[in-house]
Amino acid sequence: MGHFAAFAAFAASRIICDSSLLKSVKSVSIVCPRRFRSTQRQRESNLAIATADPEPDPENQLLPVNVAVRSVIQRKSSPSTTSRWYLKGFACPDGTRCLLKVRYVGRTPHTTRAAVKEWVEAVTAARLSKSSGASEPVDVTEAELRAAGLISD
After folding, report:
1. Which residue from 99, 63, 96, 106 is spatially nearest to 83, judged by alpha carbons?
2. What is the pLDDT of residues 53-78, one digit of tens each?
3. Does residue 74 sit within a domain?
4. Looking at the structure, do residues 75 and 10 belong to the same domain, yes or no?
5. Same domain, 30 and 64
6. Could you say which DSSP state residue 64 is in?
7. Residue 15 domain-assigned?
8. What's the pLDDT band for 6 if we cut at 50, 70, 90?
9. Domain count of the fold of the chain
């Protein structure tokens, strides 16, 4: 009996069929070591029997930045634009900067849909507060306008 056949026989003898577990199983992976000379503990750790993974929350799932941004704002944006959002951010009227929160997985920046939505809300609020301050009506008397030379008699 070859190494793989021996390992397959061992694996088949260890699998317990539970119908309730099989309904929630998404994938089964069996890892076969290169050589079958190992201890019982190592063999059992190398055998990954189906486990039911809970569904990840789609809002808090890490995605590449461009994918997360595209899924939230429903349009493509340039990679240079999205990189500017997390590297330089947006200058708020109070002097702070709104940066998109990212985490690096290797060399690739990742973020969540929730973080993109939070960043869009912060930028929108900053822009609205900036524009609302400039559009406030100012009470000016005619005398002040004449003194400034804006109206004549």
Report:
1. 99
2. 566 677 889 999 999 999 999 888 89
3. yes
4. no
5. no
6. E
7. yes
8. low
9. 2
Residues 32 and 97 grouped into a single domain: no
**Residue 75 neighbours by CB distance under 10 Å:** 7
CA distances from 8 to 13, 31, 63, 75, 133 (A): 9, 10, 36, 49, 72
Is the confidence at residue 2, as pLDDT, over 70? no
Domain that includes residue 27, residue range: 3-46
* Separation between Cα atoms, residue 141 and residue 103, nearest integer Å: 55
Q: pTM for the whole thing?
A: 0.52
Express each pLDDT in 79-121 by its tens digit.
999 999 999 999 888 888 999 999 999 999 999 999 999 999 9
Residue found under tokens 């100012």: 138
- Spell out the residues 6+ positions from residue 86 whose beta carbon is closer than 8 angstroms to its own: 65, 99, 100, 101, 102, 109, 111
